[in-house]
Amino acid sequence: MKRRVTGSDEPRPSHSHQTVATPARPRHRLPAVKGFPVVVCVVMAAAATFVAEAQTLRRGATQIRRATPPKGSWDRSVEGTFFPDAFTTLVGPRPDFTARPSGGGSTGGSSGGSDGQTAPQGGGFRWSGLVSEDTLTDEIKNMKDVVVEACATPSAFKGGGYDKARKGFSAIALAFAVVADYDGDVRWKKDAVTARDLFARAGFNCKVGTDQSFAEAKARIDDLNRMLQGSSPESRPERDEEFAWSQVAGRPALMSRLEEAQAALRPAAASAADFKRNVEAALHAAEVMAVIGEIIQRRDYEYHDDQTYVGYSSEMRDAAAALRQACNDGNYEAAREAAGRIEKSCNACHGDYRG
After folding, report:
1. Burial code of 28-48, b = ≥16 C-beta within 10 A, e = fewer?
2. Quick check: 203 and 185 in contact, CB under 8 A?
3. What is the C-alpha to C-alpha distance for residues 335 and 329, in angstroms, rounded to an integer?
4. Which residues of 261-290 are buried (b: 16+ CB within 10 A; e: fewer)?
5. How far is CA 89 from the centre of its chain?
6. CA-derived radius of gyration, the chain
7. Lowest model confidence (mean pLDDT) among 89-93, 142-146, 211-215, 329-333
8. CB atoms < 10 A from the CB of 99, how many?
9. Is 156 helix (H, G, I), strand (E, B) or coil?
10. CATH code of the region 251-353
């Protein structure tokens, strides 16, 4: 008789044999330790180990291991090179290395110099030690008249006006660059970086008189009129590279502006009466010269690493700062002496670097 196949391949037990019940397989459970599973205990133990090791490392990090002092005596030739006690030989108070350094700050100023070299409380170069907000504002307004005249017509621009526009736009760009970096709240500061780059590009492009450079010059005049009326420039500059002072105004344009400022000083230095009549013009010229004397020492300008050139520039800047103070004090004799120092440093520099 054929066996009937059920749902299992195992043969069914015969009725003639006693069926033995198979005990149920027990479920594996993790033993409990005080109410917590072993896994939780293991995790807690690992965390405790990690915390202990971290505390050990932290304690070790605060301990400075110093090298063992050398034993024995130095060779006599070595001992003769050093002082037994440097503090018995050094002169003056010990330097305070926690004090903020003076100099160019975030924009790369020169080292050393006049009262304009002191860094402000928040860092950066203290431009207020060299130039006032009024002079920066007047410089921008004055140079606007120059570029408007140079760009009166396309023919006037192409006939030589482009060179005047180049100098004017460069001077405007330089003023906005100082405004952007000024140690205090001054007019146009929120738009100064945009204006700086726009007018700097116009100054460089006005090296030639073309339809393109004329169109750009007219657009910048429109931007400047908006800013003078209290609005922001509509245009936006395209700057890919890092900011550099030499990209704001080229050295030839700065030298031309220096010569104009130097010429404006001469009437005020003629006599005490002339000084009194021309003191405002002399003050403006002195502050412009002080700014340029500082700028041309920045590391991206030619000759910035030439100590002779830097010496001439520093002397001119410091003398211009002294003239500024004399104008504010109404001191003709001090103004005349400072103007003479400016003239001397400029002539010496031209003799060495123009010949």
Report:
1. eeeeeeeeeeeeeeeeeeeee
2. no
3. 9
4. bbebbeebbeeeeebeebbeebbbbbbbbb
5. 39
6. 39
7. 89-93
8. 8
9. helix
10. 1.20.120.10
